[in-house]
Amino acid sequence: MPQQRHVLGHSNDVSAARNAAVGEETPSFDWPVRVYYEDTDAGGVVYHANYLRFLERARTEWLRALGFEQDHMAQEHGVIFAVRSVQIDYLRPARFNDALLVRTRLAKAGRASLDFLQQIHLDPVEHNAGVLSKAEIRVACLGVGNFRPQPLPRVMLEAFSLVR
Asked: Is residue 53 part of a domain?
């Protein structure tokens, strides 16, 4: 099983080298994913919509690593998060049983939104391979009851400022 690697406001030699290789200057968060048979299509490659699932999991785990559980955010702060826009490029296919690494980086924290830059790699530790997919994703902060834009809670903005 791939080793979990989290890089949030600090770096080590391996993560710094990985970040430099993709031209990132701010810290990133890495989340391993294994491709299961259920993720693939009839051609044996990951179905395009499943890349979005991998990206979502990595963003959720990034928030969790910062101490934010989404159900608690809804209960304690009255906010939820919804994807507002996605721009994704599929560069190379992932296949059954591939070990992937989803790299997540917060590009911008706005008043009521978060912009992420995400990449999916074949796990560099096992394959020393390049980027399979790149995505730019905007997530909106919404009120639980009305689904209207709400300012990001201050506690989140403070945490985000430490990892950018």
From this structure: yes
